[in-house]
Every structure is written in C-alpha cells, then in structure tokens.
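Supplementary Data S3. Sequence and structure tokens for construct A.
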Amino acid sequence: MIVTVTANPSVDRTIELPGPLERGEVLRADTVRSQPGGKGINVARVVAEAALPSLALLPARAGDPLLEQLDAVHLPYRTIEADGPVRVNLTLAEPDGTTTKINESGAALSAGLIAQLTDLIAGAADGAAWVALCGSLPPGVPADWYATVAERLHALRLRVAVDTSGPPLGAVAGARPDLLKPNAFELAELTGGDGAFLEAAAADGDAEPTAAAAAALAERTGGAVLTTLGASGALLTTPEGTWFARAPRVSVRSTVGAGDSSLAGYLIAEQRGDEPADCLRTAVAYGSAAAALPGTTPPTPAQLDLAGVHVRPLP
C-alpha cells in the first residue's frame, strides 16, 4: 500500500477559459470542474487508477463536500475531525495551457488536532511500502512538522517521500527522507542556486547544473531526489547514479497536479521493483499524461506514453 498525507486538502475548482485571461474584463467559462484536491490526494488517486492499494489521510469534518467527492471516486481515506471546512482552490486555465491558481489558506489545526493527525499517520501506515507527505501545511502547523512525522515513521522502519515547499521543505531535508520531489525552484531553495537558471538550462538540454544541485541535496539527505522540470522532463538522483528524462510532447490542458502524478508514477514503479531509470521514465510519463488532462484528473496506465520518454544517464 502507498499511504499519502494531505495536511491541507482542498476542493479544486478549475475554470477553463475560451481565450487568454484578461484582467478587469468579464469572461465566460467554457467548462467548470470541481474535484477532490491536495497533493497527497492527487497522488493517492493516481495510485488507485493503477489498481494498486492506496490510502489517503487528511483532516476533514464529517459531511464536508471534499469527503463526498472522495466517496464519489471511491478513494479509500481516513480522517481526523477538523475545526473548519476544507478550503476551495481556484484554477483559471487558458487554452495554451497557462494556469493561474488562487489558493485559500485552509482551516487551522490546533495542537490537539496535530497530535491526532500524527498518531493517525503512524497507525495507518503500518506495513506500507511508502508514506508520502505532500503539500503545504495549514495555519497552526509548525514548519518542522513533516520532519517530526518523518522521524517517527523512520523509527517504524517505513520509507518516506516528501513533496512540499518553503520552510517545511527546508526543515524536512534534515530528517533525511528516502525521497524528495522538488521542482527546479524548490531545489534551488535548498541548495542556494537559481531555479529559473536550472529550468532554462534543462529546457536547452543541459541538465548538468540541475544534476550538480540534486547530487549535493542527495548527499545531504542520503536518499533519492526526483527533480521535476516541467515540460523539459525530470532528473533522478540516487546513490547509484543520476538520470535525465526528456518528456514527450503533449497538448497541455492543465499543469495542476502534474508534479503529483510524477511522484505517484515514481512510487508505483519503485514499489514494483523497477530499476531507477525505469522509475524515472514512469514518473515523467505520468506527469506528462496528467498535463494533457483537464483540472486535476488523474491519468490511467492506458494514457501513458512510456516510449516517448527518453532517459539517459548523466556522469
């Protein structure tokens, strides 16, 4: 089983526009979608679409619209009671694939609720292949909470993957997670580089600057680093080596959740025993497939273009 933790879940509303977003104008929507969201939930949905066992852990009070949506897509989940409603995040999607996100902060968690969620994770994750700690933290949760949870899970001999940003990312790196999934800008946060430069270099086919930064981070954490680079692909750094994968060309509808799908793809491939290069290939294929779908729709194995992902080892 792959267990995911979404401390700050959301209902994701995606509005697809017929043309470019124009500030100050009255615009009409082509389509509007409301889907269960939050990084961990997105990962769990992709895993479930691959017919593998998954379990999503999150705070939400009984009857919340998010839980009704999770029931509708038949995703297994467990919750602690929250003090307020799950937030609603808004995405404006333009025809060329440009997305603008407006995210609410989320309901605050008290110290008692944080303790309940931590205990829920430790209990529900027993025997899991991976536990993925994903997304932002809601108000009231300290920045080092992911690090605290990772240390507790490691004491239970469980493997931990982390996908977050900002202060929580900086704090959890010291807890030596088994897998970190930064993008170029988050990698730069941790290594003191320039995310825009790393992303631009990768777009030009030069993955060496990103590889050097990821290698430094992997040495610091002792685990693997999966660096997603948008349309350019992704980079995987492990103790065994470094690989760069070019993404296939797709017609982008929404990039929201594409990184979550990449993480899910990696975990799916890794837990079935694939070699690192094939884990990276699967991760990139999932991320690309997600970008071609509307909203945060999870891709299925049938939608993957594995042959279109070109993987090469780096020195």
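Construct B, processed identically:
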Amino acid sequence: MSTVLLLAITGLGLGALYFLVASGLSLIYGLMGVLNFAHGAFLMFGGYAGYEVSRLIGATTWPGFAVGALAGVLTGAAIAALTELLLVRRLYERHIEQVLVTVGLALALGALASGVWGTDAIIITGPDWMSEVTVILGARVPNNRFLAIIAAVAVLAGIVLFLKFTRYGLIIRAGVENRSMVTALGIDVRKSFTLVFAVGGAAAGLGGVLASQYYTIVSPHLGPSLLIFAFIVTVIGGLGSLTGAAIASVLVAMLQQFVNYYVFGLGEFAVVLALALVLLIRPRGLMGRVAA
C-alpha cells in the first residue's frame, strides 16, 4: 500500500513538471497555431537563472529560493517574448518555417548554455525542507513533489482566470477567432500574442526552477529531455487544450512511474506506446477539437 501511494504521489509530482512545460506549448499552439520547439530552452535558462540568483542570495534559504524562482519565471518570459517579437511574428501561418526557426533557436540557445555553464550537470541545493520527506500512510514522499504539484495547480488556475476574466485575455481570445475584426477596432493584437508567448515562457521558466530541484541538477540537457515528454503530453491531451494537457500530464507520469517500478524500467517505452495508441484510435487527443 505504501509503495502504491508513493508511486502515485511522486507520479503527480512528475506530472506537475510535465504540465508546467506542456501548458506553455498548449497555450501557444491553441491560441496562435505555433509549434514552438524552442520551448525547452526557455525552461533550461529559467533553471540556470534560478540557480545563479538563489546561489547569490543563499540557495538553502527560502528567500533565496523564492527570488531565484522569480528570476527563472522572468527569464523564461523575457526569452519567450523576444522569440515572438524577433522571429515568430514574421512567420504566422508559415508552419514549416516556424519549425525550422524554433529548432534552430533551441540548438543555438543550448550551445550558448553549454558555453557559459559547461556541458556537465551542476548539482544544486535548496531549502532543507525540500530534501526532507513527509510520511503519509507509511509512504515517505519527498517534499519537493508537493511543491511541484502546488505550482502546477496555481499555474493552471492562473492561466484560466487570465484568459476568462482579464481584458487582455478577452482580446487574445477574440483575436484568435477574428484577428482582422479586432484590428479594425483599433486594438493591437500583436501585443496580446507577445503576451501569450511570455505567459507560456514564464510557466516554462518556473518549470525549470522546480525541475532542477526535483532532479537536484541543472544542465543543458534538462530542457530537451522534458520537452520530449511535454510534446507527448500535448499530443495525448489534444493540441491546444489546456485541460487536456493537465489530464494527460497526470496519466503519462503515472504510467511512467508505475511501469518503471513494476516492469523493469520500461516506463518510457510504455509512454511512447500510449502515444502511438492515442494517435491510432483518437488522433485529435483526449480533449482536442475536431478540425472544421
């Protein structure tokens, strides 16, 4: 019983990390139709920014961690906004060029990170509470899993509230439906689309900080490895569906955790098999909309 509970809670923690990355992918694709392969780089630089800032203030203190997390969020948002302004804005409705440019940007930013911090993983520390465990019905659950779960729930709620109840959220949704009409009303939709990228990048930056605490390392490979699972989650959940991404994040992480434990480390194979089955049986994903 304790083993099953431990796998379930740690699976939720891993799913929370997947969602923090997949939420930005799903948001950007759902509202703007852009497949952003540089999204993992936003996460990676968010993790490095969090590491550097928290190290300066005090990596093992809560103020150091909090300011480092804020730095990671702002770094992810800034890089994402610049990506939209300088590169993606010229490529809307040109999907092949979007893929080529964002893949190239991901490679360039990965090389930049390797040049600045080296190719080896950097071991990081956090507040003592994160390295401790909480015993629940006999299961010794690492505390950093709870932090990831809380952050993912807060991000999901924040994005939904932003889109539904703010002026910019209304403009973004209207611009997606009829961009020319919104522009004719004198509203600059381009600023709103830049904001969408920034929000997605901020979620990825926070994911980078929490992933570095989850794995206790930060490295140039952190973003690409999580991005693979984030794309799987996005496809299974349904491209453009934030709710689908949340559900798929939990399902994928749970499947990975349980299969890794009970079937000799074949969790990744099980996830890829699940992706193949979803594409064969329900190509639009769990919550994806039927193409008009």
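The mean pLDDT is 87. The chain has one domain: 2-281.
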